[in-house]
Specification:
six-stranded mixed β-sheet; four-stranded mixed β-sheet; 10 strands; disordered N terminus
Length: 246
């Protein structure tokens, strides 16, 4: 995969270099849009400017996932799981600990002589959203999906041509950071992105037949093939365990 950071943000702190280190406290973090946990170890962790900007730019869900990993790093900076991601044994790069492959980020960091952890960069897949040829590369995201057809709805057995009309009814999906529609849906197992768009739109039409749905929000839970999809389903149904999609 190709990885990138998000670039500068005009509201962020402005040091002399993107690699300049900065310490944070609770108030400074809040002023720059970071909701760090109350037990975050500000004395142990410093951020390079480019890592800070990347963290600042994330939506709430992504930001919290990254912060969880940074907290783990601050407690276990030499963990084997943070070394094996790089061919250089002296480079520390932690990959998401979420047990499914379709949520990817790396945290690049160094351990200073005083045992401080310096977060030097936060990297995400360069192509974060939309359909992928390999469905396991699709990412957990919110999308606003539009009705783009002539109003075809499921009302019983359909011919092949009528099924194609249902498929063509929904599309023009755009990433969203929150639900701004009256209707929303989460796709089930073995639904890649293209199929999830029209299938969940069809489900919503059937469930809310009196509504004139022009758009809905899809929480796309990517398929990771049959075995992993079943595992995720069982994981979510456990009394004390839920995956990142639950």
């Amino acid at each position: 995969m190709t990885w990138k950071n998000s670039g500068a943000n005009k509201n962020a702190l402005q040091p002399s270099s993107p690699h300049s280190l900065m310490g944070l406290d609770h108030q400074t973090a809040l002023e720059h849009g970071l909701r760090l946990p109350v037990d975050f170890n500000y004395q142990k962790v410093e951020f390079a400017y480019q890592a800070f900007v990347m963290l600042q730019s994330l939506n709430d869900y992504d930001q919290q996932q990254v912060i969880k990993e940074i907290q783990f790093i601050s407690l276990h900076p030499t963990a084997a799981s943070s070394v094996k991601q790089s061919r250089n044994p002296f480079r520390h790069m932690r990959r998401s600990d979420i047990p499914f492959r379709n949520y990817h980020y790396f945290i690049d960091y160094k351990i200073a002589a005083n045992s401080q952890v310096h977060i030097t960069d936060i990297l995400f897949d360069q192509q974060l959203h939309g359909r992928k040829d390999r469905h396991t590369d699709e990412r957990t995201m919110l999308y606003r999906v539009e009705r783009i057809g002539s109003g075809a709805k499921y009302d019983g057995a359909k011919s092949r041509d009528e099924i194609q009309e249902l498929i063509d009814e929904w599309g023009d999906a755009k990433p969203s950071i929150q639900v701004n529609t009256h209707h929303a849906a989460v796709n089930g197992m073995l639904n890649e992105f293209t199929k999830a768009q029209w299938l969940m739109g069809t489900h919503l039409d059937s469930a809310y037949q009196s509504d004139s749905i022009k758009a809905y929000t899809l929480f796309h839970n990517p398929s990771d093939k049959a075995v992993r999809d079943v595992y995720e389903c069982a994981f979510d149904k456990g009394q004390s365990n839920t995956s990142h999609n639950a």
